[in-house]
TrEMBL record:
EC number from the UniProt entry: 6.1.1.20
Enzyme class, spelled out: ligase
Signal peptide: none
Protein family: Belongs to the class-II aminoacyl-tRNA synthetase family. Phe-tRNA synthetase alpha subunit type 1 subfamily.
GO terms under biological process: phenylalanyl-tRNA aminoacylation
Entry protein name: Phenylalanine--tRNA ligase alpha subunit
Gene that specifies this protein: pheS
Main location group: cytoplasm
Source domain of life: Bacteria
Source organism phylogeny: Bacteria, Bacillati, Bacillota, Bacilli, Bacillales
Summary of subunit composition and partner proteins: Tetramer of two alpha and two beta subunits.
Entry's cofactor comment: Binds 2 magnesium ions per tetramer.
Aminoacyl-transfer RNA synthetases class-II family profile domain ranges (all copies): 102-333
Length: 337
């Protein structure tokens, strides 16, 4: 029996053969189990002899099975290693990855630049009260300048903010005249406008506010000049034109020179060679006062810019709607490698 089993083990080719042999010879219904089960029928003298013999045979077969199993497993592994070699020089399959939206990148770039000049980044609610959106900015109810910003009203007192300027009033109101403010606020704003290539009912703004003792118009000009040069290139110039906002006095609009071409092509710029990119001015004394700042002690400047406008200028985007229709072919052009 032992010899027969060992020959079979020797001849086995597959691991599954070994399992069959194990079941056939050593299993519950196998001959050895049968012998051991029949022990009761044997005489006292025969029992230890037969028992010892059966155990020896079982052990011999089991040992051989284990050894063979190890050998077969090793062989199998070697075969696998041989046949399953990977050609690491084959080109990989490209994986599609997303990237930040152009607007997100632009806003982050603007943030980094102003953080570098010591501004903190703040946020405010998109659903705003009439008070912060208008009244605290020197635009009382019935003020004709409210018509400059057609609004989406939710209730009589609540609206979708038409600009990020309410965050000026909120921040100053929070500090109550106790310390200087130097912040920017990026965010979405909403206006009742008909969408076309240059208008959108929803767009983004970045507000800037610096309130301290002895802040001057030249500080505003210096900061904006720095921004224009860092953002658009050293060869850019800025010019300030008089303008009107109820919450700044005097008010300005800033143009940037646009005769220059950059990596992504030339900026769209017709006529004068200047293009308007933001509004700003010196914070109106009434605005300071309403927020708890003494206008005799404190003054400041504020500005508001539109990142879409800036991105359109910087990259020659010809339609503001590209930012919101999210055609990946458009967006992909601006993903950094
Ligand atoms: N809030 C103004 C607008 O949306 C821009 C602005 C901000 C002007 C701050 C002056 C100071 O048009």
């Amino acid at each position: 029996l032992q010899a027969e089993a060992l020959t079979k083990v020797e001849e086995a080719i597959y691991l599954s053969d070994l399992q069959d042999i194990r079941v056939a010879y050593l299993g519950k219904k196998g001959p050895i189990t049968e012998v051991l089960r029949g022990m009761g029928k044997l005489s006292k003298e025969e029992r230890p002899v037969i028992g010892e013999l059966a155990n020896k045979v079982r052990e011999a077969i089991a040992t051989e099975l284990d050894a063979k199993k190890e050998r077969l497993e090793k062989e199998e592994l070697e075969k696998k290693l041989e046949t399953e070699t990977i050609d690491v020089t084959l080109p990989g399959r490209p994986v599609k990855v997303g990237g930040p939206h152009l607007l997100t990148s632009i806003v982050e770039e603007i943030e980094d630049l102003f953080i570098g000049m010591g501004f903190e980044v703040r946020e405010g609610p998109e659903v705003e009260t009439d008070y912060y959106n208008f009244e605290a900015l020197n635009l009382p109810k019935g003020h004709p300048a409210r018509d400059m910003q057609d609004s989406f009203y939710i209730t009589e007192e609540l609206l979708l903010r038409t600009h990020t300027s309410p965050v000026q009033a909120r921040t100053m109101g929070e500090y109550q005249g106790a310390k200087p403010v130097k912040m920017i606020c990026p965010g979405k704003v909403y206006r009742r406008d008909t969408d076309d290539a240059t208008h959108s009912h929803q767009f983004t703004q970045v507000e800037g506010l610096y309130v301290d003792k002895n802040v001057r118009m030249s500080d505003l000009k210096g900061v904006l000049n720095q921004f224009a040069k860092q953002f658009f290139g050293e060869d850019r110039e800025i010019r300030l034109r008089p303008s009107f906002f109820p919450f700044t006095e005097p008010s300005v609009e800033m143009d940037i020179s646009c005769k220059v071409c950059h990596g992504h092509g030339c900026s769209v710029c017709k006529g004068t060679g200047w293009i308007e990119i933001l509004g700003g001015g010196m914070v109106h004394p009434r605005v300071l006062e309403m927020a708890g700042y003494d206008p005799k002690e404190y003054n400041g400047f504020a500005f508001g810019m539109g990142p879409e406008r800036i991105a359109m200028l910087k990259y020659g985007v010809d339609d503001i709607r590209h930012f919101y229709t999210n055609d990946v072919r458009f967006l992909k052009q601006y993903h950094k490698a």
